[in-house]
Amino acid sequence: RLAARFQTTLPVPTVRLINADTTFPAADGETILAAALRAGMPFPYSCQAGNCGSCKCVLVEGEVLELEYSDSALSVAERMNGTILACRAQVFGEILIQHLAGKAMDNTACD
């Protein structure tokens, strides 16, 4: 008699981008920006270190782990309104984000 093997599969972290009406996967603990770029999604960015604010977006649903960032890139008031930096927000589950209006959505780094 063979013992049955059970494999537990945890949900894959995913990011749903409202602006593009699309969803892309993220590795556990990967930043939103890294996952977007890996998936070929257009997403404005520059420093990738939390200093410039080019990758600001609003976390609509879900939770992220925010890494350290510069206060000049994201103010306390912005943070209180749900704004996060995609380059400094790690994904561990399903999230829904909206990129801030007025930013061009392209695959190149901002100057």
Would you mind describing this structure in some detail?
The protein has about 110 residues and is of the alpha+beta class. The protein is about 10% helix and about 25% strand. A five-stranded mixed sheet has the order 2-1-7-3-5. The longest helix is centred in the N-terminal third of the chain and has 7 residues, at about 30-40.
The main sheet orders its strands as 2-1-7-3-5
Strand-and-helix sequence, N→C?
Answer: EEHEEHEEE
Low-confidence stretches: none
Q: Report the C-alpha radius of gyration, rounded.
A: 16 Å
User: pLDDT average, as an integer?
Assistant: 87
SS-derived structural category: alpha+beta
Distance between the termini: 65 Å
Major β-sheet profile? 5 strands, mixed
Question: Number of DSSP helices?
Answer: 2
- Percent strand equals 25-35%
Number of strands: 7
Helix coverage percent = 10-25%
Chart the SSEs and their pairings.
Blueprint: E1 14-17, E2 22-25, H1 32-38, E3 56-61, E4 64-66, H2 76-80, E5 83-85, E6 89-91, E7 94-99
Parallel strand pairs: 1-7
Antiparallel strand pairs: 1-2, 3-5, 3-7, 4-6
